[in-house]
Amino acid sequence: MRVRHSLPRLGGSWRPSCGLIAVPLAIIVAITVIDINTPTTIHLGPFLVAAPAITASFAGAGVTGAIGALAVAAQVVIGHLHGGLMTANHLAQIAALLLISVLVTIFRYARDRHERQLDQVRSVASAAQQVLVRPLPDRIGNLRIASVYIAAEAEAQIGGDLYAAVPAPGTSRLVIGDVRGRGLNAIGEAAVLLGAFQGSAYRNLSLPAIVAHLGNAAYWNKMHLAADDDPEAEESFVTALVLDIHDDGPLIDMVNCGHPPPLLLHDDKVWPVEAGEPALPLGLTTPSERDYKVEAFAFEPGDLLLLYTDGVIEARGRDGTFYPLADRVAACDTSDPESLVQRLHDDLLRHAGGNLGDDAAMIAIAKSS
Predict the structure, then answer these.
(1) Is 205 helix (H, G, I), strand (E, B) or coil?
(2) H or E element in which residue 251 lies
């Protein structure tokens, strides 16, 4: 499963059903018929402006302009039957209706153009996200994998959380990380880390060597930003979790660099896999292999492992409470990665009211027997 960029979007184009067009048409017909059959001292023609105004709320500029033209034509018919078009009152009503119809059509055109521009931005951002954080495969060896990425910047659809997975000799190697901050710097830092991981994962390096390579990439990228007088460079770092899931045994090797611990669902109980000696986040120093200690834990067929970023556990509900991830994982009562990720995705957005304060990513992994 690959659920991507799932916060609600604002301003998307809405295509109405043809039946809605009957509403402004009915308004024009009703006002015209009633006005024609009322005394000439009563003027209902000004209410015709409701037709193009209502149309603009659900239809495009072309339809809005057409409804406006029909409303003006109806006003001309009313004026002709109520004493002639050249009276000052009827000329004023026709001019006012024509002006308002034109303005409403122009505003609707401007909104349509803005929505087209937003669609283009979304398309480019989606393509960039696909390149930056490539969709995880559904399977690697005997592993089943499902993932979800929820960008806090809904319109940008791209953020500073990162993950990747590659097959390596005898293992499946995964990384999940969270760049401090948001915006272009966070996206650039995530791109550097993912490039370093994907470029080194196939070199048969040890897990500490991989993490040291990532740490040096993050640090020198930070120094590059500092040389460009970037005010946020000094505070830049990345929390990360790097795993080797062995093919030939129920074992996972892990190096944790200041990242939230994964959750292991085993025998219907949820356990946080805490690191005994977590390392510093990436980017703070120039590390070596000696700075990282590999910690191992059991991962058997039937178990479910959940990796996540702090945007998940720091999501606040309307009452200010943090999202209780471990409790919700236990309550899901499933061993299927896709089902778990989908349920947590929906539940997280409900908890946060559809508005996360930070990017959030989750990866669920199950091992086949």
Answers:
(1) coil
(2) strand 251-257
- Indicate the SS3 state at residue 51: helix
Element (H, E) at 364: strand 360-367
On whether the CB atoms of residues 358 and 139 are closer than 8 A, the answer is: no
Tell me, what amino acid is at 301?
P
Residues across the chain:
369
CA distances from 205 to 122, 158, 211, 220 (A): 38, 30, 10, 20
Instruction: Sort strands 139-140 and 143-150 into parallel, antiparallel or unpaired.
Output: antiparallel
**Interval 197-217 mean pLDDT:** 88
Q: What is the pLDDT of residues 274-314, one digit of tens each?
A: 998 899 999 999 999 999 999 999 999 989 999 999 999 99
* Helix or strand (DSSP H, E) at 184: helix 184-200
User: What residue type is assigned to position 17 of the chain?
Assistant: S
How confident is the model over 68-82, as pLDDT tens digits?
Answer: 999 888 888 887 777
Question: Which one-letter amino acid corresponds to residue 174?
Answer: L
β-strand partners of 69: none
Task: Judge whether 177 and 282 are in contact, CB under 8 Å.
Answer: yes
* 3-class DSSP state of 358: coil
- Which is nearest to 5 in space by CA: 113, 127, 183? 127
Phi, psi dihedrals of residue 95, rounded to the nearest 5°: -65, -45
What helix, strand, coil percent values describe the chain, rounded to 5? 45, 20, 35
Query: Strand, helix or coil at 108?
Result: helix
